[in-house]
Amino acid sequence: MLYSYSAKDSTGRTVTGALDAPDERQAAQEIRALGYYPMRLDAPAPSYSEPAPSAGRAPISPGRWLLEHLLFPVWSGVGLRDLALFYRQFAAMLGAGVPIYQCLTTLDRQTSNGVLRGQIRKIAARVLSGGNLTSAMREFPWVFTDFHRAMVAAGEASGRMDTMMARLASALEQEYTLRANIKRETWYPAVTLLLSFLLPPLVLIVVSHDVHGYLVQAVYPLLFTGGVLAACFITGKLLSQFRVAFDGLIASLPGIGGAVRMVALARFARALSSLYAAGVAIPEALRFSAAATGNAYMAKRMVSAIPALQGGHGITEALSATRIFPPMVISMLGTGEQTGGLDATMDKVAEYYEQESVVRLHQLSVSLGAFAMMIAGVRIGIMVLNFYTGYFNKMNDMANPDGP
């Protein structure tokens, strides 16, 4: 098959040409073998573009619309661990030569998550009726994200679905490990903050049996704070502009912001590595990788480099102009761009920032835990002081019933 391409040479000059290769992955490898860095690869083969959201879909009921636009963006019902296992099993069966439809029917029986099982069943029906796997997955974008579908589309275009599924499973397993580390390091300060709300006002019940005072000083503030946090989370999921502003604020906070940026950069590097190795065009790979960061503010800054890439600039130059990447990342991007090994370079970046984020989160956990303990101590001290002040005032009133 004849592929046309646009690439960069070692001096940064744009070169174009055409070559014959059995699939896109082999074409990309041949371009790198020529000493060029591929920027765009075109062929009369299935592309990564997807139909508009309304194309090929029957009208949906108002209830279904509410679920898709209000509930599923907040809670999909499918965990990251379930998805990683799904792709890992899919890759194993494809590697053994099992057809895609049979893989899906087997996974339908093996998957323990009921929500994911229902979605697999519907995807299998679409594939059986002649649709491709990428388009079928697009029916559930809150579970199978742009990053997932780009990897699957690359596998369909190259004929190496097993490899792409295995890469996708590995990426999700790394993300699951990263999230587990975040949860482990933030568990202690979260529990300490919770107890700082609930424990100090217990003095009111123990000393004066004032249940109403406990509700006012402990339970009501806790419910209010939890409601505000839940409202911010849901609003951020549903309103992109609010989320950009909120994520930008979090990323700029002293202490917390550094850990947030490290986690986002680790996710970006991991996704870019996988997509580049899959042969996805650099502008598309950058857009999907930015979405994988989990930080809307940083993602917006990252995708601002896409016009420069489309205009012929190198990825190092384009991303450096965003001023969101540390010098180390820019340096390693330049190395990967010059050598054609951007996937391996980004893997190293991801490993570094994953390790550094764990260290930073641990330091933050200790600091927040100590801060929460200090808050609890101050609240207890104030309540004890108020109690004894009121107690001595009552004793003084009893000793001097007629006043001064």
Describe the structure in brief.
The chain is mainly alpha-helical and 404 residues long. It has helices spanning 24-33, 62-71, 80-95, 100-110, 114-128, 133-137, 146-158, 161-198, 202-208, 211-238, 240-252, 256-278, 282-291, 296-303, 306-310, 315-320, 327-339, 342-399; strands spanning 2-8, 14-20, 37-42.
**DSSP strand count:** 3
Strand-residue fraction? under 5%
Question: What is the percent of helical residues?
Answer: over 70%
Q: Output the structural class.
A: mainly alpha
Tally of helical runs: 18
Q: Which strands sit side by side, in order, in the main sheet?
A: 2-1-3
Mean pLDDT: 79
What ranges have pLDDT less than 50 throughout 5 or more consecutive residues?
44-56
Shape: elongated
Number of domains: 3
Order of helices and strands: EEHEHHHHHHHHHHHHHHHHH
How does the major sheet shape up? 3 strands, antiparallel
Cα gyration radius (Å):
27 Å
**Distance separating the two termini:** 104 Å
Q: What is the topology?
A:
Blueprint: E1 2-8, E2 14-20, H1 24-33, E3 37-42, H2 62-71, H3 80-95, H4 100-110, H5 114-128, H6 133-137, H7 146-158, H8 161-198, H9 202-208, H10 211-238, H11 240-252, H12 256-278, H13 282-291, H14 296-303, H15 306-310, H16 315-320, H17 327-339, H18 342-399
Antiparallel strand pairs: 1-2, 1-3
Helix pairs in contact: 3-4, 3-8, 4-5, 7-8, 7-12, 8-12, 8-18, 10-11, 11-12, 11-14, 12-13, 12-18, 13-14, 17-18
